[in-house]
From TrEMBL, chains A, B:
This is Crp/Fnr family transcriptional regulator. PROSITE patterns: CNMP_BINDING_3, HTH_CRP_1, HTH_CRP_2. Residues 154-234 form the HTH crp-type domain. Signal peptide: none annotated. GO terms for cellular component: cytosol. SMART domains: cNMP, HTH_CRP. The keyword Mitochondrion does not apply. InterPro entries: cNMP-bd_dom, cNMP-bd_dom_sf, Env_Response_Regulators, HTH_CRP, RmlC-like_jellyroll, Tscrpt_reg_HTH_Crp-type_CS, WH-like_DNA-bd_sf, WH_DNA-bd_sf. It comes from the Bacteria. It comes from Sagittula salina. GO terms for molecular function: DNA binding; DNA-binding transcription factor activity. NCBIfam families: TransRegFnrLRhodb.
Amino acid sequence: MLNERSLTVHQDCDQCPIRHRAVCARCESDELERLEEIKYYRKFEAGQMVIWSGDKMDFVGSVVSGIASLTQTMEDGRTQMVGLLLPSDFVGRPGRLTAAYDVIATTDLVMCCFRKSPFEEMMLRTPHIAQRLLEMTLDELDAAREWMLVLGRKTAREKIASLLAIIARRDASLHMTTRAQDGSVAFELPLTREAMADYLGLTLETVSRQISALKKDGVIVLAGKRHVTVPDLERLMEEAGDDTDGGMLV
Amino acid sequence: MLNERSLTVHQDCDQCPIRHRAVCARCESDELERLEEIKYYRKFEAGQMVIWSGDKMDFVGSVVSGIASLTQTMEDGRTQMVGLLLPSDFVGRPGRLTAAYDVIATTDLVMCCFRKSPFEEMMLRTPHIAQRLLEMTLDELDAAREWMLVLGRKTAREKIASLLAIIARRDASLHMTTRAQDGSVAFELPLTREAMADYLGLTLETVSRQISALKKDGVIVLAGKRHVTVPDLERLMEEAGDDTDGGMLV
DNA sequence: CGTTATTTTGACGCTATTCAAAACCAGTGG
DNA sequence: CCACTGGTTTTGAATAGCGTCAAAATAACG
């Protein structure tokens, strides 16, 4: 089901926005050249399915721009988001035939794809790729485990605060975003209430209620439904139940 | 705080019970020899702390026998287990200075340790180690994500059933365990009710109640508090809310 | 046999879910 | 410009499920 918009022209790795963070981050120029031979871009519109759980995976790749989600679904329809894929994040698992999760484009999405078997071959010959992938996978594992604490032990209010804090932090690190001199942070919510609920293990009604509560209590300020301003990030982190006095992850 | 029992004699890798599954699984004999130079064994008693979150990590290693748990704790004492470390599982994260989680010996535990910086050095020169570690980390990531569904979306009863199913499956794969001809499976629970609660994001009272309920409904049979018999594994999987018709993870 | 840890059971309360309806919003076409 | 549509979000009321507190029962241990 490729429409015209799902294919894009070849683009140079040098000017790639995720050049220094993606799986190719450690590659030398000659290694990049070989990667360029097997890479191609694909575009997806918001809501589109990128990969179906159980399907054969014929490519792996990196998120270039936009957001995708990894979700798991039970027979009766309950769904849990198990990962949020941001620019530079890697999709797919070398060494496995079929996809374990649904991958859905949450926003409009551009991916840099590699056909799977050439990529796997190249990984064997190119330690720089395997090393970087290991590093990224370890980071993802940490993120997944951090999220297990959120899912297992936090209240609905803390869950919402945790999600907002994560988005705020990431947004701040990515593009030196709207961070006013008074220390307030502002960002656009990339997720619907339902997507937030699926990420947090809540219902969308509870998400809505808790956002309203945080707003009433002045922890956040809303402009429209999606634009969030956090006057005091420390306050938000406290609400999230996180160690406010500096994380120890060095 | 090393007591005498925490150190053990050097032992040959050839006869190691986790030789084919641990981080060293792909090593050639010459690579093993170099590993043997930097390895040493440590024993821990049930309940002992192996690593404290935030502490400097000066070693990494593999679980040889016994069970350890990775847990995260909030300031107010709420705790969530984020990983169950079984024989052959890897502990520690190359490339990071301090530990992100508490590691606790759930049962008596033997670990095969490597001093961290020699191991990191060796990883750079030995693709076989890095490759295997990547593979193991990807598996752990999958396990963590599977667990996110359990924590986020399953009921207390389903959570208990899921845990029992996991232990049963693993026990069956490890040592061709007590699997009677009628298809029933039996195993020893390696966790206290409290540890189960910490893993499942429940209270120990709820764990106890749900185990009683599963017992009353004939899904499991208890001999003592810890010895579990599962007459019908399919039935247990249904109770866990899992796809009973064969998982698609190939 | 007493002491302590672990587990079970009960009664009650609270949080989050469920079901339902209304408000809001963006887009489309008359 | 307005009415109509479908999707998203908010709000309300009632309920269920799990947590909390308390106490008893059981097992482990010296």
